[in-house]
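Subject: Interface between my chains keeps coming out wrong

I've been trying for a while to get a sensible model of this assembly. When I model each chain on its own everything looks fine, but I need the whole thing in one frame so I can look at the contacts. Pasting all components below, labels as-is. Any help appreciated, I'm running out of ideas.
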Amino acid sequence: MAVAVVLGAAVAHADARLEARKHFKQGMALIADGRLDEGVDELLEAYSIKPHPNVLFNVAKAYESAGKLEDAITYYRRYLGYRPQDSAGVQAAIERLTARLPPPEPVPPEVVKKEPAAPSGPAVDPALVSRLEQLTLRLERATEALDAREKPDSRKGADPKADELPAPDDDTSDVPYEETVVTASRRAQSTLEAPNATTVITAEEIRASGAQNLPELLRRVPGAEVMAMGVSSYDLSFRGFNQRIANKVLLLVDGRTEYQDFLGGSIWPMVTIGLDEIERIEIIRGPGSALYGANAMLGVVNVITRSPGSGPRASFSGQAGNGAVAGGSALVSGGERVKYRASVGYTQAQKYSRDYDDGRPDVESSFRDSWLGLRSARGNLVLHTSFGRDVSVSMAGGLNRLFTEIYPIGLLRNFYFDGLGGYVQADGAFGPVKVKAFWNHLATDDAGPQYRVVGQRSLALTLQSNVFDAEALFQKDFTLLGQHRVGVGVSTRLKRLGWTYLGSLKQELHAAAFIQEEYHPIPAVQLLASYRIDRHPLLDNGQPGYAQSPRVSLLWRLAESQSVRASFATAFREPTFLESYMNLRTPLPGVNGASVLTLGDRTLKPERLLAFEVGWRGELPKLGLEYELTGYWNVVSDLIALSAVRPLPAGQAFDPDTQAYLLGYFNFQNDPLTYNARGLELGGRWSVLSGLDVRASAALQSISAAVAPGQSCDACRQAPAVKFFFGATYRTPVDVDLGADVAFTSGTTWSSREPDAADPTQIVNNPTSIGAYTVVNARVGYRLFKDKVALSVVGTHLGPTHAENPLGNAITRRVLATITVTP
Amino acid sequence: MKRALLGLLVLLGCEAPPVDPGADPRQATRLSRIEGQVVVSSAARGNVVLFLYDAARPPPPTGTGRPVSFAVLGREAVFGAAADGDLGPFTAPYAFSLVAPGRYLVRGFIDVKGDFIPWYGVTAEPNQGDVGGAAVEPTTRAPRVIEVSADAPSLDVPVSFGDAAVFPFDRPAFSPQSASLELSAGGAPQVLTLSPLPVDDGLIHQKQPVFLARFVDDDGDGVADDANKDGVPDLWPKVLVRKLAGDSGLLDENDVDHNGVLDLGGADYEHLNPADGSTVAADGKSDAVVLAAGFDPSPFAAQLFDAQGKVKATPTPVSALKLVVRPQAFDVSDPRSPAPLKSLPKGRYAITVLQLTGQSWRVPNELSSPYAEALGFPSVASQAFVVTVR
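Reply #2:
Try treating it as a single job with all components included. I did that and got this:
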């Protein structure tokens, strides 16, 4: 057994699910070929990599088919240890098989009495003993190998049999090791059945990548446009239309929005959890409004955290590197009746580059630590308890005292936010009904431009944002001329915002209802139809109105590991508070007596997307290969953007509040152009060897619009035509981990309206080109003490210094050392 | 906490992040600033408007420069709750930010009626009752030239305002007394009568019913000056007939950004060598084209002299000005040496009348349609007038 443990510990896996699936499929193929023992070995190897109860069931079935009833019974009993839903049927099978067993040969009592020390000969079948011993050994190896890799969690309940079993790693799919997502249809389903292009980034991948933040991880997603403005400021879009404060992708953490409704866009460092708390990240590329409503226009990023009580009971990490990178975190997880996961963390980093030097006569930093780019002190607590199989309740809360950079729109430049963010969330599952409620809070009295013009009026701001959200979802499966899965939900959201850029307190009440029907007329065909209607207080020309988001998708599962799909969907992005209510007088650079007014418009229409998508997703499990190919055609209209400067009536030229003359006003308006975005995305993962995984993707896109002669299509030029990603991780058998990834983005041209250098009272359109750039990240890690300690050196942005937006930082190399202790 | 952070930084041997302006043109500049106090000794009340001029391009009456920047100090900031009639002095800090290294002049006025708007020609100058001011040398009272560099801001520049600098008149608003004036190459000079245009409507308060005429006598010898030696005494008001851009609009040719500086790559014409009449090829530089024009003082010349036959120091009201425009064009991109053009550029020309206070009025302007309606100004048909060269 000691040998088995050592061997198990030495086995290395980068993407455990992919490797386990590879062994599982090979095992099933061998069993089908009649090579039972080899096949079972492969299945148990898969089980040792990543436990899944259905593997035990498949082993039992294999033995049963081969007539090895005792073995079958053994594995059925092991399977029952997981308390599966089909326990009754399996128990019946055990009884049936037991009845078929030949009765044990009677041993005369007197013989036993006379020769108690020699129980041999015909009393015991040696083959049976050998087989049982092998069986036991295999299972012990599988279990103990897993023990050596990771402590089992406590989710197995009070069943003493279950206590002997490794936890199934949250893999709840019926088909072992098939990748599942919950974001695409709000229920667990195979990615092969997801109606959208879907990418999953696993916890193992996160760890192996050495990524220091969420957006950097997303560079591996086909079609993702990750634009680093600074060390703490990222903008994300899918399939074009990225911008400063990118506002068309919805960021969720366990289903709770991190999208800042008042601003549009996500403040990525505001998330109160650490990367080590993430179970997986599900990325839906394409419209998601049919389920998630406003703002899930071009995609959804759903961060799913580890279940409380799962994973390591404690974990501590620290990091330090150049660029004043320093930080640490602690994570504990456990509990019996009430399971918990609690974490705290601190992170800081200096900017990649400063816009201005210190001590200048014209411009100065708004805060003393002019080097600072990120400082976050966060804490998060999640509690979970279950009442029986179908009822569970979770409570969660988090706080983040955050300093971060934000790069806003229009004439504004690099901002900072020094404030507090937090949330409280409650989730309940009551059989087919799930309810969720949360409160998101964000507040600061210390924010504004990072650099201020000496002598000019300040744009410092205060902010109080509170979002209250409640949602109920009912899901039911039934059979009627096929299999149906129906989901119905309602939600409401109250937003209250006090922001000096808007004037008085603003409040909006939103509501929505949605329904989804997933119909399998035959098992291989899935027809999915979703419809959501959102009530927005301003959508009907400034009055309450409705946005409707239908989606239909047809999916054909060509084979167990191949599917094709075609879908049509609409999505929308609602006007943000900023776009509806903004009332800001921005000083004209260099003209202290003049400002330009930026006004919101309460009559804006929502941005609209019509999306057509076809996709092919498949696996070659025996090779450990997964791939997807997606083609899309997005028709985007009513984009909300700032207008050119418009004159004000002469009587409104002087603004008594700011004692300045208003040059004119920008206002948010719906762009009359309709944009056609077409693209092709190819992505794949390959478990090349044990421990070696490769992920690669490519995306091509073209955006066009019928612009008038002499006009330019800004959105067309701002979208990179080509993106590539290649990443590899190798978890070597000698406890050294290697990882590297390369992301290439082709050149773009960005337009921004700028005061003319010669005459700041003239606002001119200023196109600026950004050359193609390549982001290179790498990690070298070393595991000690049976993986209890992991040391690593991580390099980010190891390629040439580059900028990803004309107004962004010059992004430079960062190298840091990390240590993770998992006692 | 911050000490700990700083200690950590030292430990890590970290340096401040590099300064990199990237592709942001605003960050790529290295500018300076001018600061100081306005000092007001006057019973006038209103916002204080300060203008910053390039010293090489001074404002009227000594030049034709436009401000490179302006600042506004609200009435409250300067005068607080001072009682009416209180002469002060009142002081308040001001600043010109993001000033490019160079040499500058500071002028200003107190906008007593609150009718100044910098964006429109018809509202961009002081009117009667406004109080002028400037940064001046403390001893000589001459305009102070302020020099700043990227490393050396000018932080103590007082700007003084006093009742001695009250603008006694409104601007020389005028109305051409013909529907049109057309010239053609080789044609005869044309004459146009300008009449005063009192307007007191809405945001426009130009009540002056007369022009104020006076012969120029800068040396004070009582004899009218003749700077260009053309035998015609120089007269206040002065007039400029400047070519406009395009077929519509109010902008000057080669100054479409309206900053008073000729645009690069603009219209360029062949010049005429005045010495021998030969053609001088276009030099690739934008030209500022004006027509040869002046007021004929003969109808009122006698009124401009006193009993001793000397030029009156005070201006004389006149009810009309006779503008004579000759079919000859000049490039005044160097105002000190106007260069004659070989041909007469076709197009539209604006008339600007500049009176001795430095105030001016120009036609066409924003009182013409459709600007007036859009901006909320009174519409005056005559203010659309242009001189046309065919």
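Reply #3:
Confirming on my end. The domain at 2-103+126-164 of chain A is CATH 1.25.40.10 (Serine Threonine Protein Phosphatase 5, Tetratricopeptide repeat).
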